[in-house]
């Protein structure tokens, strides 16, 4: 959460691109895929006085190493 006067606004980004509609003080990713591994998320916090960018958070997506199995034959 950020503080300032006037009250700051937020813009979340993934790999440097704005995420449409992600303008709250927190952000939850939608379901991720292996292709999202290594994606960087940060947030711009701004008001009419200044703009601050957070340090990036790097997403790690772990693949499920188990092979699928059939427990009841069709």
Account of the protein in words:
Helices cover about 0% and strands about 25% of the residues. It is built from no helices and 5 strands. The chain has strands at about 10-15, 15-20, 40-45, 50-55, 55-60. Strands 1, 2, 3, 4 and 5 form a 5-stranded antiparallel sheet that branches. Strand 3 (about 40-45) and strand 4 form a beta hairpin. The mean pLDDT is about 90.
Number of helices: 0
Radius of gyration: 18 Å
Q: Please tally the β strands and state the result.
A: 5
Overall spatial form: elongated
What is the overall pLDDT average?
Answer: 89
| SSE pattern | EEEEE
Helix content: under 10%
Tell me the major beta sheet: 5 strands, antiparallel
Overall SS class: mainly beta
Low-confidence stretches: none
* Beta-strand fraction estimate: 25-35%
State the end-to-end CA separation: 52 Å
Compile the SSE list and pairings.
Elements: E1 9-14, E2 17-18, E3 40-46, E4 51-53, E5 57-58
Antiparallel strand pairs: 1-2, 1-3, 3-4, 3-5
Features:
5-stranded antiparallel sheet; single chain; mainly beta; 27% strand; 74 residues
Briefly summarize what is shown.
With 74 residues, the protein is mostly beta strands. It is built from no helices and five strands.
